[in-house]
């Protein structure tokens, strides 16, 4: 399939998924959720076909484990095992994004910035201090996951200094939306569930993955590639 076809599949899957949420049709949501990131994966592979880049494998790994996390979290309502497995799958996805962003930072010779660590650290300690009393047996997995996604955000903040401002904005905004989505999920699950929680979680998650895929695709295609 061509990139435009994968884009169309992503749009259709997104519309169908949110239609399922609006109509409270679980079967439609279950059918469409794995297609969301799968279609973005298909788009990324098709759009970067024939372009040599060592960054492709890290992005594909992140998307594959994201698809796995989506699938594992489908039956996770009330099932702690599936939730933990889904958490682990997304943790691995973030590790792939971390490896990718770190290599981009090194290739572009972007220096570290102390104030970005302070910003991310303040947010991490704020959200953890808020959630810790409510985590119960999942305290350690959630704390570790929070550290990993915070580090992913930290590296994305450094990438804002990439020479291609459009790519930089896509990657940073995508990382921010990912943190917002996971924070909303944690608050909704462990602190106080709200009726619109699912909409907040999924809309920011879909935007996050879309922006990250578009940013990485642009980074690879525009020639900002390392030697392979």
UniProtKB/TrEMBL annotation:
Cellular component per GO, a single term: membrane
Location of this chain's protein in the cell: Membrane
Pfam families in UniProt: YhhN
TM annotation in the entry: 82-102, 114-136, 142-160, 167-187, 193-213
Membrane topology value: Multi-pass membrane protein
GO molecular function: hydrolase activity
Keywords: Membrane, Transmembrane, Transmembrane helix
Predominant subcellular localization, coarse grouping: membrane
PANTHER family for the chain: GH04784P
Family per similarity comment: Belongs to the TMEM86 family.
Protein's name in the database: Lysoplasmalogenase
């Amino acid at each position: 399939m061509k990139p435009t076809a994968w884009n169309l599949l992503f749009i259709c899957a997104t519309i169908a998924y949110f239609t399922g949420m609006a109509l409270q049709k679980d079967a439609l949501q279950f059918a469409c959720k794995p297609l969301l990131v799968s279609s973005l994966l298909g788009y990324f592979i098709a759009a970067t076909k024939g372009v040599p880049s060592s960054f492709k494998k890290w992005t594909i790994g992140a998307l594959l484990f994201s698809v796995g996390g989506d699938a594992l979290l489908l039956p996770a309502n009330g099932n702690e095992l599936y939730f933990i497995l889904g958490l682990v799958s997304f943790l691995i996805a973030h590790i792939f994004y971390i490896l990718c962003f770190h290599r981009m930072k090194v290739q572009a010779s972007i220096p570290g910035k102390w104030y970005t660590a302070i910003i991310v650290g303040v947010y991490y300690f704020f959200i953890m201090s808020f959630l810790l009393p409510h985590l119960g047996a999942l305290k350690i997995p959630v704390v570790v996951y929070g550290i990993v996604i915070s580090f992913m955000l930290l590296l994305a903040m450094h990438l804002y200094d990439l020479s291609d401002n459009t790519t930089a904005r896509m990657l940073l905004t995508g990382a921010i939306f990912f943190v917002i989505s996971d924070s909303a999920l944690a608050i909704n699950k462990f602190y106080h569930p709200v009726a619109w929680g699912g909409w907040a979680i999924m809309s920011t998650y879909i935007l996050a993955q879309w922006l990250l895929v578009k940013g990485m695709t642009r980074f690879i295609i525009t020639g900002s590639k390392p030697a392979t």
